[in-house]
Amino acid sequence: MHKYFARRPWNVFSELISHYSSPDEIILDPFCGGGVTIVESLKLRRRAIGVDVNPLATYVTLMQTKPINLEAFQQAFHELGKGVEREIESLYSTKCVKCGGAAVADWIEWDEQAKRIVRLKYNCASCGASREKPPDRSDNRLAEKIERDFTQTVKQKKLWFPRTQIPPGDKTNSLLNQGINSFHELFTRRNLLSLSILLKQIQKIEDKEARDFLKFTSSSSLKWASRQSHLRGQIVEGWAMHAYWIYPKSLEINVWNTFKRRTNAVLRGKKYSNEHIGNFYRTARNFDNLAGGKGSCLILNRSASHLPIPNESVDAVLTDPPYGANVNYGELSDFWYIWMSGGKPVPKRDEVIVNRTQRKTLADYEGLLHNVLKECYRVLKPNSYLVSTFNSKDMRVVASFITAASRAGFALEPNGFVYQKPIRPYVTTFHAMQIGAFVGDFIFTFIKAPKFSSGLRTIEPNLQKVKSELTGLIELAEKGDMTEPLLRENAYRILIPFLATQSQIDIRGCREAVDFFETKMREHELYFKNLRRKITEKRRRAFRKKRKS
Ligand SMILES: C[S@@+](CC[C@H](N)C(=O)[O-])C[C@H]1O[C@@H](n2cnc3c(N)ncnc32)[C@H](O)[C@@H]1O
Ligand SMILES: [Zn+2]
Asked: Residue 140 belongs to what domain range?
């Protein structure tokens, strides 16, 4: 329904919830993100607590879970259309080359450097044509006029859009270097006008619930409405990268059409949640509400390092923490959040992350993560589980995670490290065919044991043994065309039990083992690069052949 970065596959979480808890029990996700754990918990009739420091995350989680009157929503959409459809469409008007009638552009492709229109795709109401064309004089004139009159139009129509300056950041510096200083510059003026006209009209809707969901829909449209949209072959793509990025040829997508499409997506999503969660969702205002059964879902926008939850009151923690510097949730969420906060950016101080601009090193990340996991340990009932997915190619980041958990008091279960193969639709995409990243999930199961008494403690920790096993493994990889992810998966099976048993007593030994491994991997960088190229080429050929047949 709404973009949030790095969603985990829902089926994995659904299985974990079924396995580690029973109906009516209380599940906590301290890093709830887009809300997969919360949605799946409620579907399975567990009570759920979702926490995220990022207000966009808790907003998306809330809108995904709470029920809605679908008829009222559709009715409100209809009313909205009567108010603004024409006005917005007039901004994209063009002429049909087939019948000469009035048509509306669905998207306009721009050459960013030359600042000129390359082509338009339009739909003609008179003859039904839906085709592409090069711009004619009136298309260029309309674009120029909108540009020229922009300030005056905004004033006249009393329109609002966020004018927030882009703060410096690991992900935003590239924009600042290109001379893009405010978030609104990521939109064309035509699309800015359309978005603010739309927002203004949504504000007028009386039914609060319908209004809230239409705002949600307009927020969900932003991903498509910015200059970060582009064509990939024939496919129209919205902003999907983990970085701000404007392609040399960008798309200006018709805001009303996008909004219509997003309305359908939200309708489908809410129909699904109404069916599967429905009235089981009841807002809990606080923990007592939830424990007393008044509410079934508590969503908290705050850092999970301090939770308003009593000791030993949660049945299971299921989560997916940030993986080092993997995704800059806070920096990337500003793009949406400023539209709903009146221009305020996402607070980033407490975000668990590795980020140079925020001056957070891997050690800081580990400390911040530790604070959250310690809090999870406190609220979890004795002998209960903390189950976490964790994916990072960098063993140092994985080691930080294990260390943070162990120091918090958690013990890794004897078989508590599982590699979950990726789900099917994911593997068949071309992305997954590019060898180099894990496409599945690592799942760690920790227990809140009274006194760090995991079965793993019986393993004799031996740094030299670990090192020689790792060396043997790398030699094996070289002989047998083993890819880097596969090698890492095997190396993790050696390293992770070692880290889980040692991190409470011998941090230095842990670091040494991890550094030893990563140094070896760096020495083999070229070898893996070549192997990757070889395999990718082979798969690409097979993929093309399959597509042809
Ligand atoms: C990997 S994402 C979770 C993704 C989620 N499982 C999903 O499927 O969409 C990690 C989340 O941790 C949040 N986070 C980072 N630091 C936090 C903190 N101190 N307290 C709570 N949440 C935090 C980030 O905002 C981000 O949404
Ligand atoms: Zn026509």
From this structure: 70-255
Q: Partners of 387 in the beta sheet? A: 318, 445
Ligand 2 centroid from CA 412, angstroms: 66
**Is the shortest distance between the CB of 31 and ligand 1 below 6 Å?**
yes
Does residue 80 share a domain with residue 61? Answer: no
Q: Whose CA is nearest to atom 27 of ligand 1?
A: 33
Structure tokens at 416: 């508590």
User: Do residue 314 and residue 202 come from a single domain?
Assistant: no
In whole angstroms, what is the distance from residue 316 CA to residue 43 CA? Answer: 16
Q: Which helix (H) or strand (E) holds 155?
A: helix 137-156
Q: Quick: pLDDT tens for 90-131.
A: 999 999 999 999 999 999 999 999 999 999 999 998 999 999
From 41, 352, 372, 401, give the residue whose CB has the most ligand 1 atoms within 8 Å, as the site to mutate: 352
Q: Are 165 and 181 in contact (CB under 8 A)?
A: yes
**Per-residue pLDDT tens for 319-368?**
999 999 888 999 999 999 999 999 999 999 999 999 999 999 999 999 99
Q: Quickly count: other Cβ atoms within 10 Å of residue 382's Cβ.
A: 9
* Pair 129, 241 in one domain: yes
Query: Structure pTM?
Result: 0.89
Q: Who's near 546: CB < 8 A, 6+ residues apart?
A: none
